[in-house]
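Structure first, sequence second, as always.
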């Protein structure tokens, strides 16, 4: 497991994405978007879509289009 302390909105590597469980990944998503997190298996390429069509990326630690 990663030795660094992960925080909300922090970018992670694809390797860290693979190592982390669903609860750990959910904690990286800002609170207002956590209800949209579909679970790790539904995050193609480390991102998932929100209700408005934007995508949250774990690899960027923010929106995919930013």
């Amino acid at each position: 497991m990663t030795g660094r302390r992960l925080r909300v909105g922090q970018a992670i590597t694809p390797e860290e994405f693979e190592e982390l469980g669903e609860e750990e990944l959910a904690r990286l998503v800002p609170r207002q978007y956590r209800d949209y997190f579909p679970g790790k298996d539904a995050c193609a390429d480390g991102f998932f879509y929100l209700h408005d069509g934007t995508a949250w990326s774990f690899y960027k630690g923010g929106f995919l289009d930013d």
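Margin note: The two ends are 28 Å apart (CA to CA).
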